[in-house]
Amino acid sequence: MLRIKEDIAVYILCGGKSSRMKTEKGLVEFHGRPFLQWILDAVTPLTSKITLVTKNPAYASYGLPMIPDLVEDQGPVGGIFTALADSSSKYNLILSCDIPKISTEVLDSLIQSAIDSDKDVCILSDGKHDYPLIGCYQKYLLPAFQQAIEQNHLKLCSLVDSLRNNKLVISQKDQAALRNINTPAELLSLT
Ligand SMILES: Nc1nc2c(ncn2[C@@H]2O[C@H](COP(=O)(O)OP(=O)(O)OP(=O)(O)O)[C@@H](O)[C@H]2O)c(=O)[nH]1
């Protein structure tokens, strides 16, 4: 059962180079459906405010708002900066486009944890690795992201560590939901 009462905006980052996958990552198919479709299925029960951060017209068929990066070629930090500049919501769920196993339940826990802890940012972790591209970022972080871009500090994990953060460790049974798929080989091993 979903517990969230707050106004949540979701931004899915669909930019970047997909150099390892060699084809547009969000449109790669898993069990006959694009990664993006799996992600949309997980977020739709949480909010109707869903925006794609990309200028690639290949995503236009989804009929969702699309916004181009305000500053190009800055990686995920630039994508999050663009999302926070666009948003009018306090809590912003930022997702990469390469997580087809993500689930509504896991995202619901993340958002609830973000609201309860009220830190600058709440991200998921498996206890060993952090997943800052499954994270809930507060709108007021916009200047921090602007400064990171100006200072060329584009390592998202370091940026998150420099903020007041909360890392929600996901139980082992749910950790498949975190898997991000970057290469054709990783796609083949996905079940
Ligand atoms: N909007 C936006 N999203 C980006 C940008 N760079 C990466 N992303 C997204 O951030 C997420 C993680 O991207 P990465 O896997 O680190 O980079 P990538 O460029 O997609 O892929 P590689 O070239 O293989 O590293 C994916 O959802 C990308 O679509 C960017 O400059 N702008």
UniProtKB/TrEMBL annotation:
UniProt KW Nucleus keyword: no
Protein name from the UniProt record: Probable molybdenum cofactor guanylyltransferase
Ranges where the MobA-like NTP transferase domain occurs: 11-154
Family as reported in the entry's similarity comment: Belongs to the MobA family.
Native species: Algoriphagus pacificus
Protein EC: 2.7.7.77
Domain comment in the entry: The N-terminal domain determines nucleotide recognition and specific binding, while the C-terminal domain determines the specific binding to the target protein.
A molecular-function term among this protein's GO annotations: nucleotidyltransferase activity
Positions contributing to GTP binding: L13, C14, G15, K25, D69, D98
HAMAP family: MobA (MF_00316)
